[in-house]
Amino acid sequence: MKTPLEGVRVVEIAHFVAVPAAGKLLADLGADVVKVELPPKGEIYRRSRPAFAGFASDFAEGPGFHLDNRGKRSILLDLTNPGARDALYRVIDGADVVLTNLLPARRAKYGLDHETLLARKPSLVVGAINGYGLGGDEADRPAFDYAAYWARSGMMDLMRDEGVPPSMLRPGVGDHAAASNLVIAILAALRMRDATGQGRYVEASLLQTGLYILGCDLAMELVVRQPMKRHDRKRTANALWNSYATQDGRWLMLVMIDPTAYWPRLLAAIERPDLAKDPRFEEPFTRVGNSGALIEILEAEFAKRTLADWGPRLDAADLIWSPVKRIDEVLDDPQARAMGYFQPIDHPRLGRFESIGPPFSMTGVALGSPRACSDLDADFESVLREAGLDAGEIAKLRG
To answer: Residue 361: its pLDDT value, please?
Structure first.
């Protein structure tokens, strides 16, 4: 079966994570994505080798780069060169979608703002991700997801236990969320384009994405206008929705948001039927009122066995829970492996290595490109020939 976006061509003028991740998702859906990189060395993310982060590894390129750029073709174009910009316009003339994360002022400087592009090709869909949105006073404010998505949205302050300093975001978390949002908007715009012939500009900002991801708390805050309480695992009202340490220093997470039906099952799993008759815990409301005492009891019980010992007991009781896994353990998660959530990438120099597959599936259709991103500028001539440039024009750009 054909892939959903077979025949759709995308030109990506972007770097780092968020917009390239959106381009990768479009490639996973079958689009032909041309990645425009800037001379002399192209995307810096290419060179984020594991050794630079302190790992004992001789992997010669950035694994994260190939996660967010697999399946793309690469060309180098110097946007300060008017001839290169003209060549890029001709490449864009054959495209359905243009993606960029250039700040609005830089887009305008190079003639890559959506007004210019849509005037040249009205059927084009132009998509962008930026920090704070195209309007307002901060349209040209530079950002990474650490700032706009994590810190500015309120997430960094709220997503910590009481009394604990704010934590650093892990790489690419907000970027990947924003990428998914942009792809949704692009697919909707393509559907409208197919119906009307008219393209349009779509965007997702990192701040907007952070607000949406934190939406359950923000929806409450918009109504009550009162300080939101942080989680405090020693005093949380629902002891069955909490984390507990095990004998071997590992952790597990209980997630019985409505604890009533699960209370007797938990008591069976921890072999404490006596707690059912304890007047502090007999009724749901008394358990809430005495949650601190119950948490202390559960802490003592879970500390009696290892995480491996608890797994079968909690599963047998049909409880909603999860081990708190280390990231190295996730690599061999049997469910993730059974579902094919990790997929191989074939690279002409590095050989075959594993990465993360697309975050969706479709029955009857194989999604996710198995091919690594092309080597830097490997597709310069072929892409420009497809755009109608002749050998002389291509040679002049090379010169």
So the answer is: 96
Same domain, 251 and 380: no
- Note the pLDDT of residue 162: 86
**In angstroms, rounded to a whole number, what is the distance separating the alpha carbons of residues 288 and 294?**
9
Residue-by-residue DSSP string for 268-334: HHTT-GGGGG-TTTSSHHHHHHTHHHHHHHHHHHHTTS-HHHHHHHHHHTT--EEE---HHHHTT-H
Residues belonging to the chain: 399
pLDDT less than 50: residues of the chain: none
Same domain, 156 and 295: no
* Same domain? 84 vs 150: yes
Residue 21, domain CATH: 3.40.50.10540
pTM, 2 dp: 0.95
pLDDT of residue 163: 87
What residue numbers bound the domain in which 40 lies? 9-214+340-398
3-state secondary structure of 110: coil
Beta strands 321-323 and 251-255, pairing class: antiparallel
